[in-house]
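Notebook entry, cofactor series.
This is the third protein in the set we're modelling with a bound small molecule. For this one the ligand is zinc ion. I'm keeping the input format identical across the series so the outputs can be compared line by line later. Sequence and SMILES below, as received.
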Amino acid sequence: MKAVVYEGPKDISVKDVPDAKIERPTDILVKITTTNICGSDLHMYEGRTDFEPGRTFGHENMGEVIEVGNGVDKVKKGDRVVLPFNISCGFCQNCERGYTNYCLTNQPDPAKAGAAYGFAGMGEFGGGQAEYLRVPYGDHNALRLGEDAADKEDDYVMLSDIFPTGYHATEMAGVIPGDSVVIYGAGPVGLMAALSAKIKGAAKIMVVDRHPDRLRLAEEIGAIAVDDSKVDPVEFVLAETKGLGADRGCECVGYQAHDHLGTEDPALTLNRLIQSVRFTGGIGSVGVFLPADPGAPNKDAAEGKIALDYGMHWLKGQTLGNGQAPVKRYNRHLRDLISAGKANPSWIVSHRISLDGAVDAYKNFDDRTDGWTKVLIKPGLASS
Ligand SMILES: NC(=O)c1ccc[n+]([C@@H]2O[C@H](COP(=O)([O-])OP(=O)(O)OC[C@H]3O[C@@H](n4cnc5c(N)ncnc54)[C@H](O)[C@@H]3O)[C@@H](O)[C@H]2O)c1
Ligand SMILES: [Zn+2]
Ligand SMILES: [Zn+2]
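Returned structure with ligand:
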């Protein structure tokens, strides 16, 4: 089958790899209909993780079930399903408590937790930027879709990762109706956090970035765009909140945060959040931070040590939630919002491409080329 293969930093190819297949009785095999490129793929694409050359990308996957193992009871051939990027078992200590983002069964390293398709440090699972995907524990992991699956495909595919992840950021921050919320990052994840804050009834949503195309998308759903190449975002938020700071804040950038001129500082957004959020406020951090960064700007950052303004964070009595999102905690409810026409996360989609378009698309999405806000790969499309 054809798949997107990582060859080395900023070097990918689309080539034949061994077909995905049923390996265990609890597996299902999915023919991919849509699979997205994510900001998390870019950390790997840029060589800023230990992702091994030769592996395939793709953790935002949706498709049609074409085969089920003989231990699968619920999911049937022909079902249209969306797969959480987390691969979880459902029966380990962490899964049982709802932390499917920290599954112990699917992570081969006993010192770690959590697994995902085509992801650095999350097990050796193949990615879905391919024609087919093997899904372990299919009954547990696959979320089945209704008759509107094909019509709303570009909305439903966001349930694999970014919509639940943005929602998780607002959950960890503690967003409730009437809150003011500041979100750093207007990439796909930040925009989903803005949509989630809107769904929860936030009174004021401010989104900080410097790319006009992404900020425009935030404005389209009623958020206030804050261009940090033009204004100091902390001062802006304080001015909008009677000098108190926002009730809640979301980190949707991650360890490759930089100022608008490109100088990297992995602590930049977290420290700006500590300054922008009020005393006793909550912060949800879903942007990825890692304990090792081969391309870090300095030695401390290379070991994941970042200079957090902990004193101010402590003084303000803020809460801070971190980590990968437990997609299964939210995907069913968010699916039903989409089905009812009350959430349309596909408004951020800019490109729909074939597998062969991936090389060009990765470059443009990585360069944050104007107009490349979210890329959907559709293996069924003829290459152009
Ligand atoms: N926790 C999870 O489960 C989870 C899931 C998906 C993605 N992620 C992570 O979320 C982060 C965002 O993902 P994405 O797909 O939106 O990525 P993206 O790279 O497309 O978007 C990041 C945005 O942040 C902006 N940015 C950079 N520095 C900034 C700063 N100092 N202030 C404000 N904005 C700044 C960039 O201009 C860009 O628009 C990534 O780190 C990704 O790995 C985490
Ligand atoms: Zn993702
Ligand atoms: Zn588990």
